[in-house]
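User: Could you check the structure of this?
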Amino acid sequence: MPEEATKSDDPLSRLRIDRDGLAARRRVPWKGIVLAVLLLGIGGMVVSSNLEAWTAPRVRIGRVQRIGATEGAVATTANGYVVARRRAAISSKLSGRLEEMLVDVGDRVAEGQILGRLGHADLDAAVAMAKADIEARKKSRAAAEADRDAATAAVAAAEAQLPRSQAQIDESQARVADAARQVAMQEKLLASGAGGRDALDSARTHAAVMAEQAEMSRASLEQMRSEVARARKQADAAAAHAAASASMVAVAEAALAQAEALRRDADIVAPFAGIVVRKEAEVGEMVSPVNAAGSTTRGAVVSLVDFGSLEMEVDVIERDIAKVGDAAVCRIVLDGRRESPYVGKVRQKVPTADRTTSTIKVKVTFEKLDSHVLPEMGGRVEFLLDGKAQQATAKDRVLAPEAAFTTHDGKSGVWIVESGRLRFAEAAKGAPAAGESGTVEVASGLAGGEDVVLSPGPALKPGKLVRAGE
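Assistant: Sure, the predicted structure tokens are below.
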């Protein structure tokens, strides 16, 4: 008998649990179920999408056109950016910690206006010391000048005595001569027997006295001359001291001027009138006129732009540079202000080319600037042909089919088709376009290039899918 039959006949084998069979009966095909559900969902979406597309209503579609104002009047066109001829990153003349910031981005400042201040306590102290030194030196100069004036007065007084002393000498010499004549006369009288010895002795005594007085006068004159010489020396010394004191005052005043200049350098001022376009440092940061590599010190405090010097810089390809006149009239269209072009004029053609782009830089000034023109704005410059300057201020025309205009929720506009779906845009219809039947100029609301529904029906709704067709 086979072994399998033996086992099946065994009563004990019939009582054993078949675990493998039980696990097989419990296993559920989850992966298959999930895959089937996903396929059903995707299929439903595809069917739903196709069903919406198949059932979408057909509409007639027209195109909104934009006609350039300078069409046929442009010699060449170039793109570029608004730049400022006067733009500066304002730094301090000194190194120090920024203590005050007096302006913010967007502030309009005047030439010489203080933008910020560095810490200046030490500079203030230096100014005070220089002022005190000047006061002390001025007092010393005043004393020296007083001494000089006194010495000069003493010289004048001494010199005034010299003529008097000389007169006394002259008078004494005259008396000596007269006494000598008296002696000679008495000697003659005595010799002739008409005079006496006493008279001669008396004359001789008088002559001796006169001679002694004359010698004393000469000694006094010499002494007076010595006094004058000494007074002159003292006056010269006093004058030299006064001059030195005046020089020291001048030195102290120069030191004060230097200290005050350093103090003024702690004030960061605007070198020209403009608008702050960027803050480069904050209060508490270290700033320096020279920013070393790897240093945390700021090299500038603010960036200042003179908005009156704004102009366009564009790159004209080399083969078209001959089409740009030296003072050609231009039409400037900024990316952010396409509806309001500006009139410009060529200021400079930079006398070198860029070999990497094969272009030549041309600078164009604005005939009139307004608050909408900002640095670094992008734009396009159209260089007009001779005789077409009047078209520089013309505006582009936007033309749309008149049949596209309708009303929705009480608003006038058009239905625009974007990616097959509808969007209502408010728009104002202008006058009929000259020479084009069924077309009108768009006053506002459309830029050109839009696809619009012609003769729209009342059933159209925003977001609804439509198909192009009759």
